[in-house]
Design goal:
The chain is 9% helix and 52% strand. The chain is mainly beta. It folds into three domains: 8-53 and 369-504, no CATH class; 67-79 and 224-365, Jelly Rolls (Sandwich); 89-219, Jelly Rolls, CATH 2.60.120. The longest helix has 11 residues, at 8-18.
Length: 506
């Protein structure tokens, strides 16, 4: 977590002590007083959150309202994961005519399949002493309306030894397959050319090699596919220790993009929020358990992708109670059912590029309230300059705050063994005062706050010589002690001015 903007004051203090202006100050007088401005800078909401939120994104709408967006990894189901419509099989032709069962699930009805690639190899041989004409035909595989048919003449066997050539494989690209009643016909004729005799061969092997379809149409049956567990990481609470944060309009958006040409219904077996303490909180409603029907392209929309967006809000779930907890990630998995109603009147299709993509994101519009939200961090502290001539110093911090929040800071300095040796403020002090807001939570009046922080020579020497770490705690309350919800916009900003009065020892 990068909190350099929240800890701007302490960065400035370090920069002040590290500068070499002391070397240029005259020491003709005893303990002369020096006073000058160290810093005058303005930081807006985008500056702050771009360095505060690492795993999420900032979304700014047309009204400059800011939303924190956390996204999941997403998961895609590809056509090759769903349907294998051209079998990668080998089989012997035990007769000249075979009606071979087409190995697809019983409930699938194929109107036709267009092959994209793949080969069909036919192997046979001739044991006769005269040439053999071999014609192989697949009537239900056509190219431009012409059935697959290959004719080969095999030379006569010689010296009593059979000739068994292995024919080159034939390209299946763009062939249309139309299996009938879950079967396809394969047939051949083998004719001895000299005696004009038809024979049955002892050896004919048909081998489909790496077939791939580009398109299939019909009733493609039912099926169940699983989206594995995915998570949405949230680093907003990474340094959370106490207090409450409540968002008025949190939402989780589930987006599905479907280019399969048949209905899809998705149910969520897991829909949980996980707190920083490891507590698992189920959320959502019965609809997500029973299943949500997602849009799909019809037979007249081949090649299109249909999108479905489902939003979980405080109106249809318990998400507002969950977001009020210190959530570090959401997790979900899903079960996708194709043709869930088994309606075979729907003409379905699938292409080689069809896919079903499911993703989720959590959106947190910066509209809500904060009550004692505490952020802790440990920073290394090291100064290498020589400050022997530094006397007492006093810092004057002026903040002009548009943010509707009171901010209290405390810094503890610790040695190399993490033992606290001093604290910057005693007690912790409010350095940023909340601006005023109206009933809509919008800022109506800026707040200016002046803070004086003295640091004696002895304390300064102790810190610079012995401190190795800083323990930083920031406590935040939104307007009216965290009881009022407020809005944060893109141009909301805070101005910090830091001046110093100090003495220099001779």
């Amino acid at each position: 977590m990068n909190i350099r903007y929240i800890l701007l004051f302490f960065t400035i203090v370090t920069a002040f002590f590290a500068c070499k202006k002391f070397e240029n100050i005259s020491t003709d007088e005893w303990q002369p007083e020096v006073a000058f401005t160290l810093f005058n800078s303005t930081v807006n909401t985008v500056d702050l959150f771009e360095n505060f939120v690492n795993s999420g994104d900032l979304l700014i709408d047309q009204d400059q309202q800011i939303t924190l967006v956390y996204r999941g990894g997403g998961y895609a189901i590809e056509s090759r994961d769903v349907l294998d419509l051209i079998p990668d099989v080998s089989f012997p032709m035990i007769d000249t005519f075979m009606k071979l069962p087409y190995p697809i699930p019983e409930e699938i009805r194929i109107d036709f399949i267009r092959a994209k690639s793949g080969m069909m190899q036919i192997s046979t041989g001739n044991t006769y002493s005269e040439p053999l004409e071999f014609i192989f035909t697949v009537p239900e595989a056509t190219l431009d309306g012409v059935p697959f048919s290959k004719t080969v003449t095999i030379p006569a066997a010689g010296n009593g030894l059979p000739i068994i050539p292995s024919f080159a494989a034939y390209d299946l690209s763009d062939y249309i397959l139309t299996p009938q009643s879950d079967s396809m016909i394969f047939q051949y004729t083998a004719r001895l050319t000299q005696s004009d005799s038809l024979i049955v061969l002892d050896y004919v092997l048909v081998d489909f090699q790496d077939p791939v379809y580009s398109y299939a149409q019909g009733f493609l049956g039912t099926g169940t596919f699983y989206v594995p567990l995915d998570s949405i990481e949230m680093d907003l609470y990474e340094y959370f220790t106490m207090g409450d944060v409540f968002f008025e309009e949190p939402r989780m958006t589930i987006t599905a993009r479907n280019s399969f040409g048949f209905p899809m219904r998705t149910s969520f077996n897991v829909l949980n929020a996980i707190t920083i303490d490891g507590e698992v909180i189920p959320f959502g409603n019965q609809i997500f358990t029973d299943g949500i029907d997602f849009n799909y392209p019809t037979i007249n929309e081949v090649g299109e992708t249909k999108e479905t967006v489902v939003t979980i809000t405080r109106d249809n779930s318990n998400i507002e109670n969950i977001i009020g907890q210190p959530i570090i990630y959401f997790e979900y998995d899903a079960q996708v059912n194709s043709n869930p109603d088994n309606d075979d009147s729907i003409i379905s299709f699938v292409t080689d590029t069809s896919n079903f993509y499911l993703d989720a994101e959590v959106e947190l519009p910066l509209y809500g309230r904060v009550d004692g939200f505490s952020v802790n961090d440990t920073l290394e502290f090291a100064l290498e300059e020589n400050f022997d001539n530094v006397g007492d110093v006093e810092f004057k911090l002026v903040t002009v705050n548009e943010f509707p929040a009171d901010v209290e800071l405390q810094v503890l300095f610790a040695d190399e063994n993490y033992n606290v040796i001093d604290k910057l403020l005693d007690p912790a002090e409010q350095l940023f005062a909340s601006s005023q807001v109206n009933a809509a939570g919008e800022v109506t009046e800026l707040a200016t706050k002046e803070t004086y922080i003295p640091l004696s020579r002895d304390r300064f020497n102790n810190i610079t010589q012995n401190a190795k770490y800083m323990f930083v705690r920031i406590n935040i309350w939104s307007f009216d002690s965290g009881s009022t919800s407020v809005r944060i916009f893109e141009d909301t900003q805070v101005t910090v001015k830091l001046g110093v009065i100090g003495t220099v020892m001779p």
